[in-house]
Write a structure and sequence with these properties.
The structure holds two protein chains of two kinds.
Chain A: E1 3-8, E2 13-20, E3 25-32, H1 38-42, E4 50-54, E5 58-59, E6 78-80, E7 83-84, H2 97-103, E8 107-110, H3 114-124, E9 128-133, H4 138-146, H5 153-157, E10 163-165, E11 171-176, H6 181-189, E12 193-198, H7 203-208, E13 213-216, H8 228-240, E14 243-246, H9 248-256, E15 261-270, E16 275-277, E17 282-284, E18 288-294, E19 304-310, E20 316-321, E21 326-329, H10 344-359
Parallel strand pairs in A: 3-4, 4-6, 5-7, 6-8, 11-12, 11-13, 13-14, 14-21
Antiparallel strand pairs in A: 1-2, 1-9, 2-8, 3-9, 10-12, 15-18, 16-17, 16-19, 19-20, 20-21
Helix pairs in contact in A: 8-9
Chain B: E1 8-12, H1 24-38, E2 42-47, E3 63-66, H2 71-81, E4 85-87, H3 92-104, H4 107-110, E5 114-115, H5 120-127, H6 129-138, E6 146-149, H7 152-162, E7 166-170, E8 179-182, H8 185-198, E9 204-208, E10 214-222, E11 228-236, E12 249-251, H9 258-274, E13 279-287, E14 294-300, H10 305-314, H11 318-326, E15 354-360, E16 381-387, H12 390-399, H13 410-413, H14 418-426, H15 432-441, H16 446-453, H17 457-475, H18 480-488, H19 493-499, H20 504-513, E17 519-522, E18 536-540, E19 554-558, H21 570-584, E20 588-592, E21 608-610, H22 616-626, E22 630-634, H23 638-645, E23 652-656, E24 671-678, E25 683-693, E26 700-707, H24 713-728, E27 734-743, E28 746-754, H25 757-767, H26 771-779, H27 785-794, E29 801-806, E30 826-831
Parallel strand pairs in B: 1-2, 1-4, 2-3, 4-5, 18-21, 19-20, 19-22, 20-21, 22-23
Antiparallel strand pairs in B: 6-9, 7-8, 7-9, 10-11, 10-13, 11-12, 12-15, 13-14, 15-16, 17-18, 24-25, 24-27, 25-26, 26-29, 27-28, 29-30
The chains are: A alpha/beta, B alpha/beta.
């Protein structure tokens, strides 16, 4: 393996060895504390523009599986691990993590003191820009400093064209902001007839399909950079059909209903925080990954109420509309990877659609 | 901590150690009773294990009751102390059986005693596998299929449905050995025929075989309000068919997909909820990696080696939290203190390191036991290694097992013929890892080996890396880059020195020259997300160092490591009791140990813990970091002691007498021991002990002891004088015994030896005084023999007390095993004449 470096905008250099594609990339560096599901994490589009540091040191200990991709073309900017366990390497037929990243043009770096990187990111208290480079020279740092990360991430990862995922049950429109396949998987399990629309779809375009419900998908980046028309779409849709919003979708749902969303000082990516469901007082765990949170002071309690909170950082993890059949969660109820304890939310969404239909 | 409504708890202790459990239950008990104390709960601890640390935890246990672990004794204690609750989860399965007897006698109901941890119905299910499997079936938990048939045709049909191999068993068998594994139709016919003929009901069971599947262990936790969390999942390297305790085990799992993990998690939660368990629950699964199907094979809602391994490898304080759950607190109300983040008890542990646990065997002491591994546990103890990669964790774990016989090393495998090797691959034996390495050396491929052994190919990839690394080291003597790589993978200086045909000192010097130094990383349960501190560390060749010098003055103690036959956990007892005294004397204590079950690793006992193999290089480096005033090393660590003697130490080295002197054993004669504290000037008597006659063999054995010895008056004074002067001839202060053999009416002195640790533990409980504490006072020069003698004089007469060692002969299927001191796995003690107070 060749030498490769993880460099930070503050001048810090971590030396390691390269794997995956020999590409030079720039991105915000975030860490993920999950101990399972490296493939699902790498293929989650929320990591567009981000370099992910795995705190679990041994990554790639089983080979890439054909049926657990969360997207077909991942756009994560880099994978940082302590020990690359390149399972499957002995057979040319098998897809290894190294081969996969090479095909996807994603660089990886191993033999990094990932715990030290996690500490650095935790203590920085703000997002840090970094780059994976072959030589950590002035040129590399100049480029890093000069790079302005795009805020048009959703446009990069969302589908430009509608496509169907047919089923025989309820008709659901999924508005794609950087969809995670887990949502489609959960809807398929429930026999839904799904149409995925670009995030630019208008309320008219959505309602023309006469859906029983609408899902706003998760996606990467800052919800405040999404154009105003998307918020208008949400404002209309929630009055017409049941709405379920996840991740970035949840943030947009909150903004569309008057809340403001702010950046987390340290992004939380993992699956071990206790989340309290307020109505039942139950504690559940779920896959979480996000850089933004809703400012609780800006939630209009006459319109919305809070359904879930993270007990560690007190962040709002779920909202529900008081007047419309619309609700949202910050975490990923589809798991993949992560606990299944909140996948009942999809059933709740189905019930909501059925009730709506019965009233028709 | 908030107050609770429970006023007092009867804790059922674990009794003598055996193959199934070691010091982990004592460690859990210690933490639980200490937490109860802080919650204002009184505890009554019933146990008869002379090596128990908890029985001497006087600041926490209100009534330490030494007596036989039977229902009569427990009823006696219940009548006397009127406990409000009873805790069966730290006493192994036996405590559940006792609890059920108490329930059946109506005692628990009559006294309105609360059961902690498990409701009544669950106690019965833990004791009765048939009841449990009925419950699991009702809740659709995946279980292996078992069908009852009464003829060959039906058996064939069922076997074809299940797929071979299947297990055929008689229903209501006339004899015991009627379990047959059947691989094809031909074998089926004869098995069904013979099992039918053996069955009183003329029926046989056709049972799905899970052999060869992955064995996965899940530790979950639930509070009284129903909140559940997963603490860890552990993957056993060896498949079903080899007892989980004998397998190499990894936390976290190395080869599992997320969906497999989540499905088993869901099932473990469902079972725990159904059985209304409060506290921890250990669920074991068999996982078929080909189709993701899994089966529940065991459910244990009590403390065991898994709980201690998980606690030590994650940094999550399981026993402390469990105690609060038993006291009725909810997980969300538990505050783990300033070293943890708010609500840390509710954060599922996540790891940024890998822990590998390996078994420790007793075959050196009991060579006649079969080394073949199977569904019955054979290992007597366990050690673990923590590293940043699978290989590093494994190398460190192996290094921690330094007392292994030589044929467990790599070199010994070279002598195997190819046929012998194949036999060992197919019929695995203890020390299997080295056989696997040798097989790869001889050109077996990963897939081939995976097929033969049912071990996931990932592990062969790792073994192959280990092998290639060793080869690279061999081929490049003295090369710095190779040295760095080897150290990064956890290879010890000893191993590198062996491969380079040089001395560990030379390697150490080379590391210094190249400024290659290990760093220390903290084991805390958030993988760096939070600023949390557990004061548990492991080393790694990394950038960032989290280790700092402990506050002074400090004492560094090398623990006694994995449980070994002979000492049982008396070594661990000694260390744990000793550090309590060091603490009282104002020392900050630093423990180096790799036995996850060790009481010495209980977090409240010491200021800092290093989970590192006690190799000379590690100890030298730790001495540099910690700069302690005192260093304690068990005498059996000869390699380490030799290395320490070659350098100028800046601290005082104190050797713990953990090696026994076998020349005083194996003597089937009446022996009398006069026991003493020697402070350098005077010998203060601790009373006498004598060996007992074995009821079966009618010979005297040093593994059964009585306090005091019955020495006739005419003989007592002369031999007592002789003994004390022999003790006063010793060079160093310490705890000693002088042994006499009785021949006719004469007593002849046989020798003087340091008081064996097993007897230190026993006498401490007999005399109600911490002899390890006195040992510390002696070596730190604070001893006041006179005060000790005074307090002994004031103490009540304990009456006659017996100590009987127990042996693992039955568990290891050794017939006619001869009990000797080096084979002791546990012990029981009993006060024959009840003293007026034994608390």
């Amino acid at each position: 393996m060749t030498a490769r470096y993880l460099i930070f905008e503050d001048g810090t250099i971590f030396a390691g060895e390269g794997f995956g594609a020999p590409a030079v990339t720039f991105g915000e560096v975030v860490f993920n504390t999950s101990m399972t599901g490296y493939q699902e994490i790498i293929t989650n589009q929320i990591y567009n523009n981000q370099i992910v540091v795995f705190s679990q040191p041994n990554i790639g200990s089983y080979r890439i599986q054909h049926n657990i991709y969360e997207t077909i073309v991942p756009t994560i900017k880099g994978v940082v691990v302590h020990s690359l366990a390149n399972a499957g390497a002995t057979s040319a037929r098998q897809q290894t993590l190294d081969r996969y990243l090479r095909q996807m043009n994603i660089p990886g770096i191993t033999n990094i003191d990932t715990r030290a990187v996690v500490h650095k990111l935790r203590d920085a208290g703000k997002p840090l820009k970094g780059s994976i480079v072959p030589v950590p020279d002035d040129h590399a740092f100049d480029q890093l400093h000069a790079t302005v990360l795009t805020n048009q991430q959703v446009a990069q990862v969302a589908t430009p064209k509608p496509y169907p995922n047919p089923g025989v049950g309820m008709s659901v429109v999924v508005v794609d902001f950087g969809l995670k396949n887990g949502v489609l998987r959960e809807l398929s399990r429930r026999k839904c007839n799904v149409t995925v629309l670009p995030y630019t779809a208008t309320a008219e375009e959505i309602l023309r399909l006469d859906p029983d419900g609408v899902v706003l998908s998760s996606g990467p980046g800052d919800p405040n950079s999404i154009k105003r028309s998307v918020l208008e779409m949400i404002q209309q849709i929630q009055t017409k059909v049941p709405l379920f919003a996840i991740g970035l979708g949840h943030e947009l749902f909150a903004i569309a209903n008057g809340a403001t969303v702010e950046r987390n000082p340290v992004e939380h990516h993992g699956m071990n925080h206790p989340l309290k469901e307020i109505i039942t007082d139950h504690i559940v765990y779920a896959n979480q990954g996000g850089g933004y949170r809703i400012d609780p002071h800006t939630v209009d309690r006459s319109q919305l109420f809070i359904t879930y909170v993270d007990l560690i950082d007190d962040s709002i993890q779920g909202l529900r509309h008081r007047h419309y059949p619309a609700f949202s969660v910050q975490f990923f109820p589809d798991g993949a990877p992560g606990p299944d304890e909140t996948d009942g939310l999809f059933d709740e969404f189905l019930d909501m659609m059925k009730r709506k239909e019965a009233r028709r | 901590m908030s107050q609770t409504s429970i006023k007092s708890v009867l804790v059922i202790g674990a009794g003598a150690n055996d193959i199934q459990h070691g010091d982990e239950l004592d460690a859990a008990t210690f933490e639980i009773v200490s937490t109860f104390k802080k919650l204002g709960i009184k505890t009554i601890l019933a146990d008869n294990n002379p090596f128990s640390v908890s029985l001497e935890n006087r600041s926490a246990v209100d009534h330490a009751c030494i007596g036989p672990l039977n229902v009569e004794y427990l009823v006696n204690l219940i009548d006397r102390y009127r406990p409000a609750a009873i805790l069966p989860t730290v006493g192994n399965q036996h405590a559940f059986e006792l609890t059920q007897e108490l329930l059946e006698k109506g005692i628990i109901q009559k006294r309105d005693i609360q059961l902690l941890g498990v409701p009544e119905a669950t106690v019965r299910q833990v004791n009765n596998p048939v009841l449990l499997s009925r419950t699991l079936h009702k809740m659709d938990a995946p279980m292996k299929t078992v069908v009852t048939v009464s003829n060959y045709q039906d058996a064939l049909e069922e076997a074809q449905k299940l797929g071979y191999p299947v297990i055929i068993r008689s229903v209501l068998p006339k004899s015991n050995s009627t379990r047959r594994i059947v691989h094809d139709q031909r074998e089926l016919a004869s098995a069904v025929q013979s099992c039918l003929s053996q069955s009183r009901a003329e029926q046989v069971l056709v049972q799905q075989s899970l052999a060869g599947y992955k064995e996965i262990e899940v530790m979950v936790q639930r509070d009284a309000s129903g909140t559940m969390m997963m603490l860890s999942m552990v993957e056993d390297m060896d498949p079903i068919g080899i007892h989980a305790g004998d397998s190499v085990a990894f936390n976290p799992p190395q080869t599992l997909l997320d969906r497999q993990i989540q499905d088993m998690r869901d099932t473990a939660f469902a079972i725990t909820r159904k059985l209304r368990i409060v506290g921890i629950n250990h669920v074991q699964f068999a996982l078929n990696p080909d189709n993701d199907k899994f089966y529940v094979i065991k459910n244990s809602p009590y403390f065991d080696r898994m709980a201690s391994f998980v606690a030590q490898s994650t940094g999550y304080p399981i026993a402390r939290v469990s105690a609060q759950l038993y006291a009725g607190q909810r997980l969300r109300d538990i505050d783990l203190g300033p070293n943890y983040v708010h609500h840390a008890a509710l954060v599922e542990p996540t790891m940024d390191h890998i822990a590998a646990r390996v078994p420790v065997w007793g075959f050196t002491e009991i060579p006649e036991a079969s080394h073949l591994l199977g569904t019955e546990k054979k290992s007597v103890g366990t050690v673990f290694g923590v590293g940043r990669s699978t290989i590093e964790a494994l190398f460190k774990a192996i290094e921690s097992r330094y007392r292994e016989p030589a044929d467990f090393h790599l070199a010994a495998q070279k002598k195997l013929t190819d046929d012998e090797l194949i036999v060992k691959l197919v019929h695995p034996e203890a020390g299997r890892l080295f056989v696997l390495i040798e097989a790869m050396n001889r050109g077996y491929g990963v897939d081939e080996l995976a097929e033969m052994t049912k071990i996931d190919p990932f592990y062969f990839d790792q073994i192959n890396k280990m092998r290639l690394l060793i080869k690279e080291v061999v081929d490049n003597p003295g090369k710095e880059p190779v040295l760095i790589r080897a150290k990064g993978c956890g290879l010890s200086n000893q191993l590198i020195a062996r491969l380079w045909k040089t001395t560990p000192d030379r390697i150490y010097q080379m590391l210094l020259d190249h400024q290659i130094t290990s760093k220390y990383k903290e084991i805390e349960p958030s993988a760096g997300e939070f600023d949390q501190h557990t004061s548990s560390f492991y080393s790694a060749l990394e950038d960032e160092n989290e280790g700092t010098k402990t506050a002074q003055p400090s004492a560094m103690v090398i623990g006694t490591g994995g449980l070994q036959l002979g000492l049982s956990n008396s070594g661990d007892y000694f260390v744990a009791a000793m550090i309590q005294q060091l603490h009282r004397e104002g020392y900050h204590t630093v423990i180096v140990d790799t036995n996850p079950s060790s009481v010495a690793l209980v977090s409240e006992l010491s200021d800092k813990r290093y989970l590192e193999p006690p190799t000379p290089e590690n100890v030298f480096q730790l001495l540099k970091v910690e700069q302690p005033q005192l260093l304690f090393v068990p005498a059996s660590y000869t390699q380490l002691l030799d290395a320490l003697k070659r350098v100028n130490l800046e601290c005082q080295l104190i050797v713990l007498p953990d090696d026994r002197l076998p020349q005083l054993d194996n003597r089937a004669a009446k022996l009398v021991a006069f026991n003493y504290i020697y402070d350098g000037e005077y010998a203060y008597p601790l009373g006498t002990t004598t060996n007992l006659l074995s009821p079966e063999q009618l010979n005297y054995q040093s593994t059964a002891i009585r306090y005091p010895a019955a020495v006739p008056d005419y003989a007592f004074q002369p031999i007592s004088d002789q003994a004390s002067s022999a003790v006063m001839d010793q060079d160093e202060p310490g705890l000693f015994q002088v042994i006499f053999v009785k021949a006719g009416d004469e007593y002849h002195q046989v020798g003087v030896q340091p008081l064996p640790l097993t007897e230190v533990a026993f006498l401490s409980k007999v005399l109600c005084v911490s002899l390890p504490g006195i040992f510390i006072q002696l070596v730190t020069g604070k001893a006041a023999g006179e005060t000790v003698a005074e307090s002994l004089k004031r103490a009540n007469d304990p009456g006659v007390v017996t100590y009987r060692a127990t042996f693992p002969f039955k568990a290891l299927h050794v017939h006619d095993g001869v009990p000797t001191v080096n084979k002791i796995i546990g012990a029981r003690m009993q006060f024959l004449t009840l003293p007026s107070s034994n608390e």
